[in-house]
Amino acid sequence: MSQLVLCNDNNNNTDNTSDDSNQPPTIYRCRAPIASLDCMEEFSAGSALSALGDRQSDGTITKEQLLLSGLTHTAPSAHIQLSKQTAITPGLRYRNLGKSGLRVSNIGLGTWPTFGPTVTEEQAEQIISLAVDSGINVFDLSEAHSGTRAEVELGRILTRKGWKRTSYIVTTKIYWSTRSEERGLSRKHIIESVKASLLRLQLSYIDVVIVHKADPMCPMEEIVRAMHYVISQGWAMYWGTARWSPVEVMEAYTNCRQFNCVTPIVEQSEYHMFCREKTELYMPELYNKIGVGLMAWSPISMALAQCKEEAGVQLFSRASFRNKYSSFSWTEDENAASNKDGYNWMKDRIQPEESRRQQERIRELSGLAERMGCSLVQLAIAWSLKNESVQCLLLGASSVDQLYDSIQSLQLVPKLNTNVMAEIERILENKPTRPPMVSTLALR
C-alpha cells in the first residue's frame, strides 16, 4: 500500500531560541488506495481526450493534439472516429482469459477472412498492423477455415515487423477431419500438429492451443494428457477448446484434475443476437465453477455475413440453430470449397429464405442502429461486447477499412444502456431461459 508523507513546516516560522527548534518535524502518514487497471485505463483515455479542449485561438487543432487525443477532427454533427495511427483506442480493455493470468484485449483479430484467397499478403500485413496499432493483442488462427496459409503468412509478418514476443498472443487450433490422414485427437496427431504449427509460425511457443471439435472416439484421458505434455515441453502456454459442449468441457476438466494435468482456460463459441443459449446460460456457470473463459465469434464480427437487408442478403442462417452447442457445420466439403472459392460457400449458407418475422427483426434492428448513428454490424458487435461473459470477441476483416469500422463499435458499448438493451430484447424475443426443474419424486 502506498504512503503519503507530509512534513510540518511550522518550525520554520518559530524563533531559533525556542525549545522546540531541535525537535524533528512532524510527519503525517496516510494510506492511499491503489487504482485499479480499469481506472488507470479510463484516466489515460480521459487525459488524452482533454487535449482537444486546449485549442488555438482560431479553433484549429494541431497535429500533436490529434495524436494525443486519438481522434480525427470532424464536423460537430459527424460521429467520433478513431485515428488509424493512434495507440489509444477508446473502449479497449484488457481482461484475464478465464481464471488464468493471461491478459487479452476485449477484441481480437480472427484471421480467417484476413488470409483468405482474395486478400493479398500486403493487404493482410496492413490489417495486422492496424490491429496492433489499435491495441489488439490476440490473433486467432484456424486450419479448418483458412488452411495452413494463415500460419505461414502470419509468421512472416511477425518476423518482418519484429514486435516483442510478449506484446501479442497467438492462438491456433488443432483440427482433425474424418477424410484426412489425421483421424481424431490422438496423442500422435496433437503433438505433430503443434510441432507443424510452430514451424509455420516461426515461433518458439504458441500462447493458446485450441482443440477444434471433440473426438468421441478418443478417450478424454489421452487428449488431456497429450495437451499437458505439449505445455510441459514449452510448445504452448495454455490450451482450450472450440465447439465443445458444456458436458464435454466439464469432462475434460474432471480428467485433468484426476490425472493432475493442466486444465483448459477457454472455450471458443459462436455468439450473436440469434445464437445465445450456450453463451448466456452455460458459459457463466463453467467460468464460476472451473474457470473456463469465453472467446466468442459471430458471422457478423468475423465479416462472414452481410447485413444489408434491403439488398436481400440475410444476417444469419438456419445452420446456427441446428445445434445449440456448436457453430456452423464446418464439414470437409465446406472446407475444401473455402480454399477454392473464398467464402462464397458461407454466403450461400447465410442466404436461405427466412421467415417474415426474421425479416422484420432485422429491419427493426437496422432502424435502431440508424437512430443510434451506427451500422447494424457495429450494433451487433457492441451488443456482443455488452455481455460480461465475453472476455474476447474475435473480429475479422478482409480490408483495413472493414477492421477500422468494426473497432469503432467499442465506442458504442457505453451507449447500450438499460433502455436500449430492453428495446433490443423486445425486437429479438429470444432471450434464453433454463427449463424448469422437474423432480423425479413428482413423477411417481
Write the topology of this structure.
Layout: E1 2-7, E2 27-32, H1 37-49, H2 63-69, E3 94-96, E4 103-105, E5 107-110, H3 121-133, E6 138-140, H4 143-146, H5 149-161, E7 169-174, H6 187-201, E8 206-212, H7 220-232, E9 236-242, H8 246-258, E10 266-270, H9 277-290, E11 293-297, H10 332-341, H11 344-349, H12 356-371, H13 376-385, E12 392-395, H14 400-407, H15 418-428
Parallel strand pairs: 5-6, 5-12, 6-7, 7-8, 8-9, 9-10, 10-11, 11-12
Antiparallel strand pairs: 1-2, 3-4
Structure commentary:
The protein is of the alpha/beta class and 444 residues long. Helices cover 37% and strands 13% of the residues. It has helices at 37-49, 63-69, 121-133, 143-146, 149-161, 187-201, 220-232, 246-258, 277-290, 332-341, 344-349, 356-371, 376-385, 400-407, 418-428; strands at 2-7, 27-32, 94-96, 103-105, 107-110, 138-140, 169-174, 206-212, 236-242, 266-270, 293-297, 392-395. The strands form 3 sheets. Strands 5-6-7-8-9-10-11-12 form an 8-stranded parallel barrel, surrounded by 5 helices. Strands 1-2 form a two-stranded antiparallel ribbon. It has a two-stranded antiparallel sheet with strand order 3-4. The radius of gyration is 26 Å and the shape is globular. Mean pLDDT is 77; it is low at 1-21, 27-86 and 308-351.
